[in-house]
């Protein structure tokens, strides 16, 4: 898959709530995931299995998704970005509205880097 195909598939799977399946299918084994400084589950996580575990922990903390919105990906060569808005109730911190920008790098049809920018 080229970057645009990966980006479209990523968006589709995320909108369908298939976040973990997305990691299994679209992420490279050596993927690196970067969060904002100070997040409790680690700012930098390396390896598909560790990224999967980070995502599982985040999803297990969710009580309810009230709404979510994912913009159309913007593709530039080996990178794509998307803006995500969520209204989520968490077990650990109650209801929050979240707005973030996600940036991904694709190599050989797989996501090798992801980075998230948001306010905490």
TrEMBL record:
Task: Note the SUPFAM superfamilies from the entry.
Answer: NTF2-like (SSF54427)
- Give the InterPro entries listed for this entry: NTF2-like_dom_sf (IPR032710), SnoaL_5 (IPR046860)
* Protein name (database record): Nuclear transport factor 2 family protein
Coiled-coil region(s) at which residues? Answer: none
Top-level taxonomy: Bacteria, Pseudomonadati, Bacteroidota, Flavobacteriia, Flavobacteriales
Domain SnoaL-like span(s) in chain numbering: 1-118
Question: What organism does the record attribute this protein to?
Answer: Polaribacter marinaquae
Query: Which parts pass through the membrane?
Result: none
- Which Pfam families does this one have? SnoaL_5 (PF20409)
């Amino acid at each position: 898959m080229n970057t645009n195909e990966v980006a479209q598939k990523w968006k589709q799977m995320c909108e369908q709530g298939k976040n973990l399946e997305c990691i299994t299918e679209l992420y490279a084994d050596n993927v690196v995931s970067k969060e904002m400084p100070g997040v409790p589950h680690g700012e930098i996580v390396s390896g598909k299995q560790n990224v999967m575990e980070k995502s599982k922990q985040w999803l297990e903390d969710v009580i309810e998704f009230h709404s979510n919105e994912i913009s159309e990906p913007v593709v530039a060569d080996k990178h794509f970005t998307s803006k995500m808005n969520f209204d989520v109730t968490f077990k650990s911190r109650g209801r929050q509205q979240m707005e973030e920008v996600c940036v991904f790098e694709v190599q050989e049809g797989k996501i090798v880097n992801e980075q998230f920018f948001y306010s905490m």
